[in-house]
Amino acid sequence: MQLDSSGLQVLSEEECFLLLSSMPIGRIVFTDRALPAVQPVNFCLDGRSIVIRTATGSKLAAATRRAVVAFEADDFDAGRRTGWSVTAVGHAREVTDAAELARLAELPLTTWAPGDRDHYIVVEAEQISGRRIAPARAAVG
Length: 141
Fold this sequence. Notes:
Layout: E1 9-10, H1 13-21, E2 25-32, E3 35-42, E4 44-46, E5 49-54, H2 59-63, E6 68-77, E7 82-94, H3 98-105, E8 119-124, E9 127-133
Antiparallel strand pairs: 1-9, 2-3, 2-6, 4-5, 5-8, 6-7, 7-8, 7-9
């Protein structure tokens, strides 16, 4: 098990994708009017790609066209002080191909937000990293 300089467990690429696939909500970080913006989104994985559904005219849809974005998901147990965080960075693209739209519509991606969400954004995870906070070990004495 590899630890980083803070004592957190460094997750493998495989572990990162496995953990991402276990969560329905993440956060996408993008640029809005030259400033960083963060928005929670429903998502699912399609291989190594993160798929998000949004409204066609949304700020997110406009801001992510061919942009480099970050995506983060995590899970924590405050009582046990354990958890993990995974961050992916890559180019976002809007999906316009009819065949790909039909295929993505079959993914188990149900939006929680109200309204029509028929616009798909795919983030190709070009870099991915993660850390896990493991339970503190009892001192041996």
